[in-house]
Amino acid sequence: MSKTVALLLVLAFLIASCIIKPLPAKAESRTIVVPDDYPTISAAIGNATDGDTIFVKKGTYEEKTLEINKTLSLIGEGADSTKISFDPPYTWVEWNILQKSKVYEKPIEVDADDFVMSGFTIVTTGGLIGISGNGTKIAENIIFTFLGVSGSYLNITGNNFPNGVSISGDYSKISANTGGEMSINGTFCDFSLNSISGSRIKGSFSLIHDNTLTKDGFFITGKNNLVYRNIVDGAAFGLVAEGSNNTIYSNKITNCDIGIENPVSSNIIYANYVAGNGWGVNTYDGPTATFYHNNFVGNRYQVCTILREYTVQYFDNGAEGNYWSDYQGKDANGDGVGDTPYVIDANRSDRYPLMAPFDLDSVPEELPEWLVPPTVRLITPENATYSVANVTLEFTVNKQPSWMGYSLDGQQNVTVAGNTTLLELSNGLHNVTVYANDTFGNMGVSETTSFNVFVPEPFPVVPVVVTSIALVSIVGVGLLVYFKKRKH
C-alpha cells in the first residue's frame, strides 16, 4: 500500500510541475548615471552591457581615453554644461634628426553598431576621435578635435566641429552641423543644412542641398549627385564639379575668386546665381558641362578665357541660354532671347542668351527615383468575412525593401520577411496596414483594409490547466480518503 501512496505523490508532483513552470529571466537595458553610480565615464563604460544608456550629469570630467566595443548610448546633460576633457597617452616619434613630435592615442575609440553620443563638449590635448559602426548617431555635441566616423546609416546632426570631420558611410544623414571643413564619402546620403567653411563630397547618388559655405567652398568629386540651393560666399573656389553626371542647380555663388569650375566632366549646371566673382565660370579640357538658365551678374570675367585654348562647349540647352549682365544684344521679336549670340571666345558662345535674369524661384526641386517611397499593395485580406481564425496576409512591394511589417488593429508593427498568416484572430471586426522601408529609409504604406472574422464556437473543451488542477484535486481527495480508511 505504501508503494501506491508513493506513486500517487509522484503523480501529483509531476502534474503540479507541468502547471507551474518559471519563465526564464530576461536582461533589460539599464540607465547608468555618472557620477551617481560611477564617478567616471570610463568606469561606467566598463560596467555597462549592450543596450545600456550612460547618462552624464552636467560638470567637467577628466578622462584619459574611452574605448567602447559595445552598443551604448552616451548622453550628456547638454553641450553647454557637460564637458569631457581628455589627456590621452602619447609617444614621441622622431621624423628625422632635427624633428620629432608627439603621437597621441585616440581619446575616444568606438567599434560598435548603433552607438549614440550626444550632449557633450569634448576637448583634448591631442589625438583624433575614431568611431566605426553602422547606425551611429552623433548629435548636438561641440567637438574640438578632428572626428572620423565610418559605417552605414549614420546620423550626424546638430553638431559643431570647429576642426572638421570626415564621414564615410552609405545611406547617411549629415545635417544642420556647423564648423570647419567636412569630408563626405558615401552613396545615397543626405548632406543638408550645414553651415561650414567648406566641404569635399566624394560620394555618389546623394542629395547635397541648402548648405552655407565660406572660405573653402564646395568640391564635388562624386557622380550622379543632386547639388541645389547651396550658398557659397567669399571662397577661393566656390563650387568645383570634378565628378560627372551631377545636376547642379539653384545655387548662389558670390564673391569668390572662381565661381564655378568644371574641369573635365559632363555635368548639367543650370539656374544658378553667379555674381561678383573674379571668374564666373572656368570650364575646360574636353567633354564638359552644359550651362543654361544661369544668371551671370557682375563677375570680373564672366567666363575664363586666358588659361588655354578652349574647345567647343555648351552654354545653352538648344533653345535658351543664360543671362549675362554685360550682354549688349537686342530682342527684336520680344521672345526674351537675344537675337545675336553672347560671344565668349573663338570656340565658345551662348547662342540663345536671355534678355532678363532667369526666375530661379520657379525651378522645382528634383527628386531622384531612389527618394520615392515604395508602393505597397495589399492583396489579402479583402473587405470580407472570413470563417477561419487564421487569415492569409498577402501583399506586393514595387522595389527592394530593407524592412517590411504590418500593424493589426492599430497595434505596434510586427516585422515580417514577406507574405504571412495572421494567426488566431478573434471573432469580430479587424483592420490591417502593411509598411515597407526601402534602403534609403523611405516608407511606403498600403491602404488599410477592414475585414470580419466569424468562426462558429466549437464544442466546449475543458482547458488543459483546469483539467490538470482537477486531476491534482482528485489525487489529493483520493489520498485523504485512503488515510482516513487506514486510520479507522
Question: In a few lines, what is going on in this structure?
Answer:
This protein is mainly β and 488 residues long. Helix content is 10%, strand content 40%.
- Give a quick account of the main beta sheet: strands, pairing sense, barrel closure: 19 strands, parallel
> Which class of secondary structure composition applies to the elements?
mainly beta
The fraction of residues assigned to DSSP E strands is 35-45%
Give the overall average pLDDT.
Answer: 87
Radius of gyration of CA atoms, rounded to a whole number = 34 Å
Number of helices: 3
**Uncertain stretches of 5 or more adjacent residues:** 1-21
The best one-word shape is flat
Distance between the termini: 15 Å
Helix percentage: under 10%
Structure description:
The chain contains 3 helices and 49 strands. The strands form 7 sheets. The chain has a 19-stranded parallel β-sheet that branches. Among the domains are: 1-19 and 458-488; 204-371, no CATH class; 372-453, Immunoglobulins (Immunoglobulin-like), CATH 2.60.40.10. Strand 1, helix 2 (41-46) and strand 2 (53-56) form a beta-alpha-beta unit. By secondary structure, the protein is mainly beta. The longest helix is centred in the last third of the chain and has 24 residues, at 464-487. 33% of the residues are buried.
